[in-house]
Amino acid sequence: MDNTGYTTLTRQSGLMREMRVIANNIANSATTGFRQEGVIFSEYVAPARNAESLSMALGNVRNTSLEQGTLTSTGGRFDFAIEGDGFFMLETPAGERLTRAGSFTPNAESELVSPQGHRVLDAGGAPIFIPPDATDLSVGADGTISAGGRALGQIGIMQAAEGTQLVREDGVMFRAEGDILPAENASIAQGFLESSNVNPIGQVARMIEVQRAYELGQNFAETENERMKSALQTFFKR
CA-CA-CA-CA torsion for 140, 146, 152, 156, nearest 10 degrees? Predict the structure, then answer.
């Protein structure tokens, strides 16, 4: 396969990967706390022996949008939304994970947990206990949980330290490959949930663009294939 074939193949592969990402964004446009993803194309240049260097564009880097989603009022006592930067911290069997999805509830042990049963942690990494008889429970902007005028704990709002990469897991959860710190410019709103930050109209428009680009690449590949076949047939006829 010549350089043209390799270049076309890598381009088509990247566009197909972006199409899958866009489809996943659209499917999660109504998922609480979901962060929109995108694909970044990078150029890879490899030296070739006794020939020009080989350049290929690879769509192999995913970019997560951390733009604020719309806050929707639910009135739920254990529904929380973060305004600003930061994430809730959950304890999972695989370790600590970060999320913007703040629909929680007390479990049988009166610990605040996510719908999947993962315990919500405070800034120190400890679970949060909610007394079963707490009826006038309130949560302040800094995450402090109070009932009957008594502080019960504080929901941790964390953010990735500079240079720390966030790796998406299970749709709305992220694994931090590095240090995480308490968020400085964030607050919690009780009785609200943050909607997905996906722009459905923009994603559908991008899907059409990617589809057309893929079809163009496919047509180019077929034309190039016919050119090569014609050249080989002419060569062997001589």
Answer: -10
Encode the chain (238 residues) as per-residue pLDDT tens digits: 555 666 677 777 888 888 999 999 999 999 999 999 988 776 666 665 665 666 666 666 678 899 999 999 999 999 999 999 899 999 999 999 999 999 999 999 999 999 999 999 998 899 999 988 887 889 999 999 998 888 889 999 999 998 888 999 878 999 999 999 999 889 999 999 999 999 999 999 999 999 898 888 777 666 666 666 666 666 666 5
How many residues are present in the chain? 238
User: Is the Cβ–Cβ distance between 124 and 180 less than 8 Å?
Assistant: no
CA atoms within 13 A on the CB side of 6: 12
Are 77 and 155 spatial neighbours (Cβ–Cβ below 8 Å)? no
Q: Distance (Å, rounded) from C-alpha 157 to C-alpha 98?
A: 9
State the Cα–Cα distance between residues 1 and 222, nearest whole angstrom.
14
* Nearest partner of 96 among 64, 77, 122, judged by Cα: 122
Place of tokens 């197909």: 16
* d(C-alpha 125, C-alpha 91), whole Å: 8
Phi-psi region of 68 (alpha: psi -120 to 50; beta: other; left: phi over 0): beta
